[in-house]
């Protein structure tokens, strides 16, 4: 797969993944040990404002064939601040500072810039800046516990959603896995480790200046 095609796919899936993980950060509080997935989701991260983790990402097509395998580091600060730094297989960087979103492809020497508000209109990221209840937006179903993780399923109530299904898995410390099925039956799986809650985050982490000589595309 070429860097260009990978870049386009990563942008599409990551925009969903980062806002859906961030969706978890707006829920009321963190669950107790032994709580089911729904309870953990509903009470998730009352006191958590920042999150840092290592992630592994796999993307499968509608025939369940692995088409992408990537990894890197993620930092999230609510509301609207993200940094997804892909280390493998290519260096990709997605940064949002609450107002602007940058998608930087080092191999292509290209950065795409767009207002974060534009992204919010097209994705579930709208929940980041609203007071909407999860139950107003999703049908929520507890899926029980598997291999020590409590799973919960979120199904969008609107047909205009950019995805069909989201499944989240929690342990006693926080989110560990996420599975997103889009409208083309492609599945993005994210797993998180080295999870840090409420770490001190330098504001510079969420700022980006295009390197000299790169192509800047504004959308």
CATH topology: outer membrane lipoprotein receptor (LolB), chain A
Radius of gyration: 17 Å
Tell me what portion of residues adopts beta-strand conformation. Answer: 35-45%
Tell me roughly what share of residues is in helical segments.
10-25%
Which stretches of 5+ consecutive residues score pLDDT under 50?
Answer: 1-7, 26-33, 124-131
Assembly type of the chains comes to: single chain
Quantity of strands, as a count: 12
What is the string of helix and strand elements?
HHEEEEEEHHEEEEEE
Query: Which architecture name does CATH use?
Result: Clam
Mean pLDDT: 77
Question: How far apart are the termini?
Answer: 25 Å
CATH superfamily: Lipoprotein localisation LolA/LolB/LppX
Give the CATH class: Mainly Beta
Q: Structural class, please?
A: alpha+beta
Q: Please, how many helices?
A: 4
| Strand neighbour order, sheet with most strands | 7-8-9-10-11-1-2-3-4-5-6-12
How many distinct domains?
A: 1
| Biggest pleated sheet | 12 strands, mixed
Can you tell me the overall shape?
A: globular
What does this structure look like?
This protein has about 220 residues and is α+β, with helices and mostly antiparallel strands. About 20% of the residues lie in helices and about 45% in strands. Residues about 1-5, about 25-35 and about 125-130 have low confidence and may be disordered.
Descriptive terms for the model:
219 residues; alpha+beta; outer membrane lipoprotein receptor (LolB), chain A; twelve-stranded mixed β-sheet; 12 strands; 44% strand; disordered N terminus
State the gist of this model:
The protein is α+β, with helices and mostly antiparallel strands. The chain has helices at residues 3-24, 37-42, 116-122, 134-137, and strands at residues 50-60, 66-77, 81-88, 92-97, 100-105, 110-115, 138-146, 149-156, 163-170, 175-182, 187-197, 215-218.
């Amino acid at each position: 797969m070429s860097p260009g095609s990978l870049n386009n796919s990563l942008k599409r899936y990551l925009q969903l993944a980062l806002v859906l993980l961030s969706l978890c950060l707006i829920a009321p509080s963190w669950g107790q040990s032994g709580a089911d997935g729904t309870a953990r989701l509903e009470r998730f991260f009352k006191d958590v404002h920042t999150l840092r983790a290592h992630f592994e990402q796999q993307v499968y097509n509608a025939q369940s064939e692995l088409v992408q395998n990537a990894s890197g580091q993620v930092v999230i600060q609510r509301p609207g601040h993200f940094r997804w730094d892909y280390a493998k297989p290519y260096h990709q960087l997605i940064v949002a500072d609450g107002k602007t979103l940058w998608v930087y492809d080092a191999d292509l020497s290209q950065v795409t810039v767009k207002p974060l508000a534009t992204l919010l209109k097209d994705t579930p990221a709208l929940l980041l800046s609203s007071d909407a209840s999860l139950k107003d937006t999703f049908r929520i179903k507890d899926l029980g516990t598997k291999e020590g993780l409590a799973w919960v399923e979120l199904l969008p109530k609107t047909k205009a959603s950019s995805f069909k299904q989201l499944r989240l898995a929690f342990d006693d410390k926080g989110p560990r896995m996420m599975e997103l099925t889009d409208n083309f039956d492609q599945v993005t799986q994210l797993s998180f480790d080295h999870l840090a809650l409420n770490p001190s985050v330098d504001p510079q982490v969420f700022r980006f200046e295009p390197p000299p000589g790169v192509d800047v595309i504004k959308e």
